[in-house]
Amino acid sequence: MAITIKCNVDKLPKPLLPPTISYEVPYKPKKLYEINKEHEKPKKVRGFWTPERNQQLIDMYSVGIGYKEIGEKFGRTPEAIRMQLYAIGAKVSKRHCGTKYTKAQDAVIVAMMKDGKSWREIGDQLGRTADSVRKHARGYL
Prior knowledge:
single chain; mainly alpha; 7 helices; about 45% helix
């Protein structure tokens, strides 16, 4: 009859172990967090928004430049731009809600409509919703 020991051999004192069990500690693989230490997340950028950058942000937004274009200039996501505008107290909407279409935007809408582009594609180009572009095109153009 064979006896099997189901315990952690490392924690038993050596005199209590039977002579047939080896005293070597088996190979323990590295834990996942030890393996991936070189792949740590990049540190967050602190102090990015200075008063000068905030003023640039407000100026660009007030002219009518979209979140996407502003974000590309600053190296931020459109949502981060919207959140910063909200944080500094600028009147912010998720899109250009309430801002008027410029003549250049009207020309873009007309040109893209002639090319057969969808409302969504036109809206993405202008940084506006597809519904807003459709209503503007049907009501004013």
